[in-house]
Write a structure and sequence with these properties.
This protein has 637 residues and is α+β, with helices and mostly antiparallel strands. The protein has four domains: 106 residues, Alpha Horseshoe (Serine Threonine Protein Phosphatase 5, Tetratricopeptide repeat), CATH 1.25.40; 120 residues, Tetratricopeptide repeat domain (Serine Threonine Protein Phosphatase 5, Tetratricopeptide repeat), CATH 1.25.40; 99 residues; 154 residues, Heat Shock Protein 90 (2-Layer Sandwich), CATH 3.30.565.10. 73% of the residues lie in helices and 8% in strands. Strands 1, 2, 3, 4, 5, 6 and 7 form a seven-stranded mixed beta sheet that branches. Helix 3 runs antiparallel to helix 4.
Length: 637
């Protein structure tokens, strides 16, 4: 598609200037000509031709085209320009701004009757709905856009709509519907002779076969989707397809072939700054080298993964918050508009009522019965409008409360960062100054190095908890339920905490049956158990920490039992509430933010579970969670 756009753009430019030029010289010549409507159209065509291969350049040229169109009051051209800018922002992960530009583009295209542009903008906006997991809403809107494209007999847009519908069904794990719409999109892509659209459909089919665990069929479609950019492909599609091929080879335990394709993906993703691709590629490379026992490369790729992951975690949290705030502000604005309209209707009804009284004085008793009837229905309508007015006010109040809650969460996060997090960081800085500025003996250096490591571990855990808690408060985390084995998760965590537990002479025991399975989000369950085990180690000195589990009435009951300091009844009462959350030092004076258990409660409830605690000062604590679970029967050989 990109190659066809560039060829079409070159032909259009040739018609305007009488000669054919390369893209770079085309842009230079175009920018040098006087500002007019033709220049705006050509600039936007240029943006369309490069937006998948060079999104940074596309965004820069888009701002130039926007400025010229606004100066010329060429509003009709702003629709396609805003559509292009919105798409580039979406590719860069800036969903809040992408939604603003996409919505404005849709408005302008509708204003000028540009139905093709309307259908295209709808796809852009539904991409943002997909990122928000609003899949059913996106499917409903995309089906309307498909009908518009069908009326226009635009097979390329029909293929795009059908593909995006399929992706939303795939996200909902409705695989039959996803495959139906992908095959429909493929048929329209072939009719449109659009190589990019065909390749995208092949990649989507590969994803569906992966979900079905039909890996041979998946690989076949992934390889067919590897379309070179000079034949209609684009770099993002190439990078994402290379990752999928590598991941499939990893699943099949062919690690050398997996590395071959993942390294190709890494080169492209690093060049074009595809952060989401880099995040999962670095993680998978670290897993492969861990299996190959190549420790230096494991450390290298794990560090690269954490850098990209933390950056995206903050960016995604900010984007989700911005999107929610933008939606609430738009809802409030619309409610205020509706309120003004209803107020105007009310005044109009009152005016009509006054006119009726004037007619009464003129017409007299002959039409009194008719006027009485009109007044009755008029007053009934006024009451209805007043009721609607009251409902609108209630809606505005609810939305204002939601905005206040979001602001309160933001203020709480800033308070924790500014106060609770500053103390351990100051302590860490003091230790680093002591180590770097003193002539320490080897024994002293080893002693302080261990303290530095412990402090770094606590700060790292606290930051991880803070980010996850903030995302949970903004309601941007939805669980992905699957069958999880809690014993294997606890084994991983014991390996993580072995050194810390040994330093405090604490024994870690895992008594969870291997056959026990839980229906929950594995990442959420791991975070829950990590906080509970880490908390028990923090408040223990000697003794043991035991993880147990069993099934009771189709519920999986997991318990973490320690022999540590324990808590008073008052502390237990206030343990899981943000308004009264507290933190106290551990047995080795360890410090924390006091939100680990708040996070545990949030994630247990998101996974349809409950949590309880029993504790006694000086005798330890028992934390118990209940989740949906079952036992897996052993296979008979």
């Amino acid at each position: 598609m990109k190659r066809y756009l560039q060829v079409g753009f070159a032909l259009l430019f040739t018609a305007a200037f009488g000669q054919s030029q390369e893209p770079d010289s085309l842009l230079t010549s175009l920018l040098a000509r006087p500002d007019d409507t033709t220049k705006v159209i050509l600039l936007n065509n240029y943006i369309s031709s490069i937006r998948e291969s060079n999104n940074t350049e596309a965004l820069r040229v888009g701002e130039v085209a926007k400025t010229i169109a606004e100066k010329l009051n060429f509003r009709k051209a702003l629709g396609p320009i805003f559509e292009n800018i919105g798409w580039v922002l979406y590719r860069k992960g800036n969903y809040a701004k992408a939604l603003i530009y996409g919505t404005e583009a849709l408005k302008i295209n509708r204003e000028f009757g540009n139905r093709r542009g309307e259908a295209s903008c709808t796809n852009n906006i539904c991409g943002i709905l997909f990122e928000q997991n609003r899949n059913e809403e996106a499917i409903r809107i995309l089906k309307r856009a498909f009908l518009i494209a069908q009326e226009l007999e635009d097979y390329a847009i029909m293929a795009r709509c059908a593909t995006n519908i399929a992706l939303n069904f795939l996200s909902l794990h409705q695989l039959d519907s996803a495959q139906y719409y992908t095959e429909l999109a493929l048929a329209h892509g072939i009719r449109a002779k659009d190589p990019y659209r065909i390749a995208f459909c092949k990649r989507t089919l590969g994803d569906i076969f992966i979900e079905k665990k039909e890996y041979v069929q998946a690989q076949k479609n992934f390889f067919e989707a590897l379309l070179p950019t000079d034949k209609g492909g684009n770099v993002f599609l190439e990078a994402s397809t290379l990752y999928r091929i590598g991941k499939t080879y990893f699943t099949l335990k062919d690690y050398d072939k997996a590395l071959q394709y993942l390294n190709r993906n890494k080169v492209i993703s690093e060049k074009f700054e595809f952060k989401s691709e880099l995040e999962r590629t670095y993680s998978l490379l670290a897993d492969i080298y861990r299996i190959k026992k190549d420790i230096p490369k494991v450390i290298y790729y794990q560090d690269r993964y954490l850098l990209v992951h933390d950056s995206l975690l903050i960016q995604r949290g900010n984007e989700q918050m911005a999107l929610k705030l933008a939606k609430y502000e738009a809802d409030i604005q619309q409610a205020q508009i509706d309120l003004l309209k209803k107020d105007a209707l009310l005044k109009e009804e009152e005016l009509k009522s006054n006119q009726v009284w004037n007619y009464i004085s003129v017409a007299g008793l002959l039409i009194l019965a008719i006027i009485g009837s009109a007044l009755y229905y008029g007053n009934k309508r006024v009451k209805k409008i007043n009721t609607e007015l009251h409902d609108s006010n209630k809606k505005i109040n609810v939305q204002s409360t939601q905005l206040s809650e979001l602001n309160a969460t933001k203020d709480k996060i800033f308070s924790i960062i500014g106060h609770d997090l500053r103390s351990p960081l100051a302590s860490l800085r003091g230790l680093m100054d002591l180590v770097s500025g003193s002539n320490l003996t080897q024994e002293e250096f080893v002693h302080f190095s261990k303290k530095l490591k412990n402090n770094l571990d606590y700060v790292s855990d606290d930051l991880d908890n803070l980010l996850n808690w903030a995302r949970a408060q903004s309601r941007s985390i939805d669980p992905q339920f699957e069958q999880c084995n809690p014993r294997s998760i606890v084994d991983e965590l014991h390996h993580l905490y072995t050194e810390t537990a040994q330093a405090k002479n604490v024994a870690l025991e895992n008594s969870i049956p291997e056959a026990l399975e839980i229906n929950a989000d594995r990442n959420h369950l791991k975070l829950i158990l990590r906080n509970l085990i880490g908390n028990s180690i923090k408040f223990s000195q000697g003794g043991s920490i035991t993880a147990t589990g069993h099934i009771h009435n189709d519920r999986a009951i997991l318990s973490i039992t320690d022999e540590g300091k324990g808590m008073s009844d008052e502390e237990v009462k206030n343990l899981f509430f943000i308004g009264t959350h507290f933190t106290k030092p551990g047995t080795n004076n360890e410090k924390g933010l006091g939100i680990g258990l708040l996070l545990v409660r949030e994630f247990v409830e998101k996974n349809n579970g409950t949590i309880s605690v029993k504790s006694e000062l000086g005798r330890g604590s028992i934390f118990t969670i209940s989740l949906q679970g079952h036992k897996v029967l052993a296979e008979v050989s």
